[in-house]
Amino acid sequence: MATPTNLANIYSAGLWNVGSYQCSGMPYATGSIDVQSYGAAGVKIEFPYVTSWIQIYNLSNTPVNVAFSQNGLQNNNYFTLRRAYNAVKGGRVNNNTSRLPLKVTEVWLSGSALGNTANAQYVDIVAGLTYIPTGQVTAVSPSGSNWSGSVGVG
Description:
Elements (H helix, E strand, L loop, with lengths): L18 H4 L3 E9 L8 E4 L2 E10 L5 E4 L2 H5 L4 E3 L3 E2 L4 E2 L13 E6 L10 E12 L1 H4 L16
Antiparallel strand pairs: 1-9, 2-8, 3-9, 4-5, 4-8, 6-7
């Protein structure tokens, strides 16, 4: 049998491939991201592959804003992760998201105490990655990766 010369018919797993999300993800971790040092524009954390899930930890004493696009961060389409220490509540508090089962290629972070660059705001991120290339998400949305422009994203 002859080997096909047309490589256009080679398939790979895509965004809708259930098995990519059912199996264990490749580990991803990054720590001590000082979101305060990036100012109001925020900082983009790009993942090398589409995520199966993410979890974000706020290690600072002030809240951190989390969005899925820069536009979302700038236009109030974000959520706020509370501070790690609260004296009123007796010290350390639950300062992380639960494991969020989301397929994203990036997250955007900004400090909530903007203008006060003297106080660092550290964030850690842990994620499970699929083997799906990030280009699969970019190809879905004409406005860029992470479905920027979608309702609730930005």
